[in-house]
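Morning run. Coffee first, then this:
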Amino acid sequence: QDKIGKTLEAEEIPDMDKKVQDAGTVVVNAKNGKGSATLSMAYAGARLGKSVLAGLSGRKRTECAYVASTVTDLPYFAQKVVFGEGGVVKVLPLGELNEHETKRLEELKPILQKEIDSGIEYAKANELAA
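And here it is:
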C-alpha cells in the first residue's frame, strides 16, 4: 500500500510496526510529559475534514476513513475511500498485504470485532443508531 513501506526488509517490519504503534508515547516522553501528540491528531482531522468538504463540493479526494466495509469479515474497517458529492462514493480495496500484515490482521480481528460491538451497543443505548 505504501511505496516506501514495500522497500523494508521483512525482518525490519515487526520493529517498525511497534514503533508506529508507540509513536504517541514516544512524543509524550520526548516532551518530558509536558504535552502530547495532539498536533498529529489535529492535522489528521483537518486533512480528513478538508477532503470530505472537497468531495461534497464536487472535487473527489482519496483518504483513509473508518467505514462500513466488506473488505474483511468485519463490518467496519479503516481503509482508503473516495469522497465525492455523495460523501463516501467508493470504498477502495485493501491491496496486497505482506505476510506480517496478514498475520497482524488475523490477530487483531477479534479485538476489532469487540470494539465494533461495543461501539454499536453504545450507539443503540444513546439513540445514535439509525
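The mean pLDDT is 89. Good start to the day.
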